[in-house]
Amino acid sequence: MNVNPLYKRVVITGGAGFIGSHLTDLLLSKGHSVTVVDNLCGGWMKNLTEAQKHPQFRFIHADIRDRSTLQGIFEGTQWVFHLAALADIVPSIEKPRDYFETNVDGTFNILEAAKQAGVERFLYAASSSCYGIAKQYPTPETAPADPQYPYALTKYLGEQLVLHWAQVYKLPALSLRLFNVFGPRSRTTGVYGAVFGVFLAQKLRGKPYTVVGDGSQTRDFTYVGDVADAFYTAALSNLSNEFMNVGSSGHYSVNRLIELLGGPVAYIPKRPGEPDCTFADVSKIQRLLGWKAKVPFEEGIKRLLDRIDDFRDAPLWDPESIQEATKSWFQYLQK
pTM for the complete prediction? Predict the structure, then answer.
C-alpha cells in the first residue's frame, strides 16, 4: 500500500485522556498513523473506543517516568504531542513529588526520546494556570508567570524544558497554554476539581450545584474539539520555540453556566489561589497560526448535555464532602 507522504507517524502521550483522545480521533480522521502512550492513571480505554477500530491506531501502556519503557517507541515518528501529565490542584499540594516526577521528569524523558528520534514537530500541552491570578485581561503571553500551586508550577517547568530544548537542541517545538477546556469525555474521577464533572453528576441526581463564591467569576471555557484543532494547526506550521494561548475569545460566568444547565444552587466558600477571571488574549495564535475557536460556549454545553449519561458514574459532591476534600487547599494557599 502506498503511503501518502503528507501523512505522519504520530505519538500522543496521554492520548487516552480527555483532550488526548479527541486529538487522537482528529489525527486518525486526517489520515495520520497514531500511537497513544498512556499509563491509564488519568485516561480510559473507553475514550479510545472508536480509535481502536482504526487500522492506523496503536496503543502502548507505558509510564513516561520510566525511560526504559519508552525505548523504541519514537523511532520513525514525525510528530509528538506531549499531553501526559498529572492534573488537579489538591493532590499536587499533598503529593508534590509525584507531580514533579511526572510533569517535569516525565517531560524531560519525552523530550530526550523525541530528540533522539529526530522528530519533525513537538507539541506541548501547557496550562494557563502558570499565570496565577493575572493582573491583565485578556491575559497576553507577556504576562508574568506566577504559579499558585505545585500543579501549575510543574506544568510551567515542563514548558520551560520544551522551549529550552527548542533553543539549545533545535527541536522544532511549540507550547500551547490551554484555558479551561470542556466537552465530552472530560475527567469525572479523582479528587474534587473539574467543574463540569461535578455539576453534571449533580444534575443527573437532582442535587444542587456547588457554586464557589457568588458564581460571578468567569472562565475562558474552550471546547475540546477546538483545542484538538489548535494542536493540529500548530503541528502543520513551521514555527518553533514559541508559546501561545489557546482560548475561546470570550469568558463566561459560572452563573451563566448554571443558567444553561438549569437547577438549584448551593454556595460554598471562595477558594484561595483561584482567579476571579481567566480570559486568554488569543491574538498571538491568530496572528502566527491563523487559528481561532469555532464552537460557541452555548453550543459546547448543548453537545455536553447530549452526552450527560457519560457522567452517571462521576462522584457526587456536596458542600460537606467538598470541604473535607479541599482542606489542604485552604491550609496551604490561604494568604
Answer: 0.95
Spell out the CATH class of 9-181+222-246: alpha beta
Closest Cα partner for 64 from 115, 101, 118, 119?
Answer: 101
Give catalytic residue positions. Answer: 151
Q: Which helix (H) or strand (E) holds 23?
A: helix 18-29
User: Domain 183-219+250-278+295-333 is classified in which CATH homologous superfamily?
Assistant: UDP-galactose 4-epimerase, domain 1 (3.90.25.10)
Residues written for the chain: 335
pLDDT digit of tens for each residue in the chain (335 aa)?
344 668 999 999 999 999 999 999 999 999 999 999 999 998 999 999 999 999 999 999 999 999 999 989 999 999 999 999 999 899 999 999 999 999 999 999 999 999 999 999 999 999 999 999 999 999 999 999 999 999 999 999 999 999 999 999 999 999 999 999 999 998 776 555 578 889 999 999 999 999 999 999 999 999 999 999 999 999 999 999 999 999 999 999 999 999 999 999 999 999 888 899 999 999 999 999 999 999 999 999 999 999 999 888 888 888 998 888 888 888 888 76
Instruction: Look up residue 272 and give its DSSP letter.
Output: T
CA-based R_g, the chain, Å:
19
| 3-class DSSP state of 209 | strand
Give me the residue spans of the domains in the chain: 9-181+222-246, 183-219+250-278+295-333
